[in-house]
MFS transporter
Amino acid sequence: MSATDGIANLKPLEQAREQKAWYWYDWANSAYVTTVSTVLFAPYIIAIAKEAAVDNRISLLGISVAPGSLPSYLVTISTIISAIVLPLMGPVADRTANKKRMLAVFAWLGAASGSLIFFATGENWQVGAVGFFLANIFLGASLVVNDSILPLISDEENRDRVSSRGWAWGYLGGGLLLAVNLAVVTILPFGLSTGEAARISMLSACIWWAAFTLIPYLRLNDHEPIPLAEKDGGNQGIFAESFGQLAKTLRELPRYPVALNFLVAYLFFNDGIQTVIASASTYGSEELGFGQSVLIGTILLVQFVAFGGALVFGRLAKRFGAKHTILGGLVIWMLIVTAALFLPEKGLIPFLVLGVAIGIVLGGTQALARSYFSLLIPRGKEAEYFSFYHAMDRGTSWFGTLVFGLVYQLTDSYRPAIFALIAFFVLGGALLLRVDTARGIREAGNDVPRVI
């Protein structure tokens, strides 16, 4: 008997503690995504831009655009820039033991940038546009680091469960703050105007994002990077070593064709999901004629339904596998955008029913995509591959928002714009069907879970 035979294995307890700390970042950033990106920013910035418009046009980087298309174009520009930047910082994160510090720095920079929206008043839509643009970039960088921590704190068998719980916490946290913001925008305390209430609500989401990031920053452990290769000689700095590794990985990507196939499928179906999220409040306010209180109430409903939906999808994945569960979710997304085409103006009950359907699949499909991809990437390159994951997401998400904005500009209606997104779910699902899960896990050198 060895000296260690009588010592209890404390690794599962330590992993459970870190997992609980990790959930808090989903809780933190989801408040910003929900209150600002999904609900309040688009209608608020459109209203400000309309005040500054001449002949219903404003100048964005020298290009004449309709105020109603401004949010879509801002998302487009920020996602293109993110697609360029994120792969450059992924290798740096992989070579860094203190990933929690990187996570916190990006989160706090994002929250500070988003706070600039508070100062967008009168006709000054530009300061709000800049704040939203920068916050989107820093949010993407923080998510790369956050997702790369998932394989470090959970084994292959439990990854779907951990990822799904993280998303569930995110929807619960975002929903709780949104409930407070709903009260502020609806009741308008202290004589606030609707615009002032919206600005305060968006600022509160940025403060929430920054404050709750402290929990993973303080409670996560450092994880030493896995040595991938011997240095060529000399004493390289972390950036030289990291970017050298990026170049090497780009050359080695063909060795992991299954991971690449999934990335292509993901960029299509996630593009559709992200565009629905980004455009939901614009569709509800501009096409269906609902006010801010109805929109926030509906998104609040979506948040709490999504909390349960993420947990349910995690359990379904345990029984049927992540791939099959994601495919089922994509079928529901197709039905959702088809139903949106026919929603009656001011039809509250159909709008709420559609919100429930979105809530069921929203968190589940994204959470399982994250955990599914983590099985297809080699150890020691988590941030690097998740930077490609988010770059593929953001590098093509501009296409979804661009299609949405162009269809609206050509038809002057958001109905065909929202329905056009069905193409992204159809293509994404068809490509996902061709992904060989077991082969991809083996190629990456990971353990194959009992159910895939």
